[in-house]
Design goal:
single chain, about 140 residues, mainly alpha, AhpD-like, 7 helices, globular
Length: about 140
């Protein structure tokens, strides 16, 4: 998508996406984009990041917790891991994630929460290891 065709919603979405997921992640995703998935990437940048994640009614921390809970309930393992990594930018804490998983257990089922808890623990351990090694895990 050329800059001339990018909407303000797309520009806002890209800024929000970068603030949540980090420049390195977004740069890798943009570099991997092809003509096949470019329309999908534009859609999620505008709709998910530009419209929903950019709304001022909830903080990024709140959106992060809800997103992780929904992804856990749906069994979207890779997305759970990606959004747990994003908590470094959103401010959601391990305690927030624990509470979200308690909700998942009650409203979506214990197996979904149990599986997501394993993913969350692994990602948090990776993040802690990276942080304790000065960014080099």
């Amino acid at each position: 998508m050329t800059d001339a065709f990018r909407t303000e919603r797309h520009r806002q979405g890209m800024a929000t996406r970068r603030s949540v997921l980090g420049d390195a992640y977004v740069d890798r995703a943009e570099a991997a984009k092809t003509a096949f998935d470019e329309p999908f990437q534009a859609l999620i940048t505008e709709a998910a990041w530009g419209h929903v994640w950019s709304r001022p009614e909830w903080s990024k921390r709140e959106r992060s917790m809800v997103t992780i809970a929904l992804l856990a309930a749906l069994g979207q393992d890779e997305e759970v891991a990606m959004h747990v990594r994003a908590t470094a930018n959103t401010g959601a804490t391990p305690e927030d994630l624990r509470e979200a998983m308690l909700h998942v257990a009650i409203y979506a089922g214990v197996p979904a929460a149990n599986h997501a808890i394993k993913i969350i623990k692994n990602v948090l351990d990776e993040m802690n290891a990276t942080q304790s090694h000065g960014g080099q895990a």
